[in-house]
What we know:
By secondary structure, the chain is an alpha/beta fold. About 35% of the residues lie in helices and about 15% in strands. It is built from 14 helices and eleven strands. The strands form two sheets. It has a six-stranded parallel sheet. The model is unreliable at about 350-354 (pLDDT under 50).
Amino acid sequence: MKVYVYDLPPRFNSEWLSNERCSKHLFASEVAIHRALLKSDVRTFDPWEADFFFVPVYVSCNFSKVNGFPAIGHARALMASAVDHISSQLPFWNRSLGSDHVFVASHDFGSCFHTMEDAAMADGVPDFLKNSIILQTFGVKHKHPCQDVENVVIPPYVSPESVRATLEKLPLTGRRDIFAFFRGKMEVHPKNISGRFYSKRVRTAIWRRYGGDRRFYLRRHRFAGYQSEIVRSTFCLCPLGWAPWSPRLVESVALGCVPVIIADGIRLPFPSAVPWSEISLTVAEVDVDKLGKILEHVASTNLTSIQRNIWDPQVRRALLFHDPILEGDATWQVLVALSEKLDRSHRRSRVLTQ
C-alpha cells in the first residue's frame, strides 16, 4: 500500500505549529499522523502509484483567547480551501471525487466539524467530504449524521513522552492506593446550560452520588500532573462529556488503570488490536447509582485478570501515536484499517468485472 502526502501551503498546517500546544493537546493526532506518514515506508512521492492521498489540514490548533480551548469554527472553510487547492494542482481529487483521499477530524464530533452535537447533527458532513475517508475520534454504534461517511475511529492524542515520564517515576507495578479516580469537569449547578446538557448529566450524578464516598477520588479542577494520580488508581472513570469519547480512555490504558466507560453506544478505536472487553468495564449511563457496587464486585472477582490484560505493552502501543511510526502503534493501526478498505475495494472491483 502506498500513501501520497500532499505538500500544502503552510497556512493549512505548519503555520499553526507556532503555538506549541498544537502538537500536544488531545486533538493533536492530526499533527502526529501527518508527521509519522512523512517518515513512513508507505509514503510515495509519485502520486500516480498511490492507493490513498493524505490531506494534512490542522483545524484544531486555533485556540480560543477566551477559554483556551480549540476553536474549530474555521474548520469547514479551511478544509474547503484545501480541497480547492489540491483539485486545482493535481488531477487525483477529481479523478476519484475524493474517495481515496484521507482527512483527520480529531475533535468532538469528527467529520461534522462542530463541538456541539445539535449543531453538528444539523450541519452534517460537508458535501465536499462525503466521498472521502475521515479519521475521527467520534464514533457511535447507532446511526448518526457525523459518521455518515467512510471513517476510521482513532484514539485521541496522548503524548507518549508524558506516559513514559510518568511510568519512570511511578511504574505500573507500584501501589494503587486510589480505588476509583476521576478528575475533570463535573457540573454542580444543573440549572445552567452545562448542567442541563453536559455529559447528559452523568458527571453531575457521579459527583452527587459519590462526592462524599471515600472510595472515590473525584476532583473538579485541573492539575497538570494528573497522570500521577491515574497510575495510582485501580479504576478510572471515563464518562462522556460533550461527546462520548475522552482522552481518559487512552491515558487509563497506557497507565494501567482499568477504564470504566460510561458512554452509551460508543465505538472504540481499533477493536481488532485492543481487546476492549478484556481490559475495561462498561457501565450504562442509567446505572451510575450502582457504580460503587459494580466496581466492588469486579475488584473481588476478576480484577487481576483485567489488569494482566491491560499491562500488555502491545495494547498500550496501539493507542499511542509515535514519531516515527512504531510497528503496532496508533498510526500503524490507521494504515491497517486503510489496507483493509483497499482489500475490500479490490474484492468489489473483481466481482463487478466478473
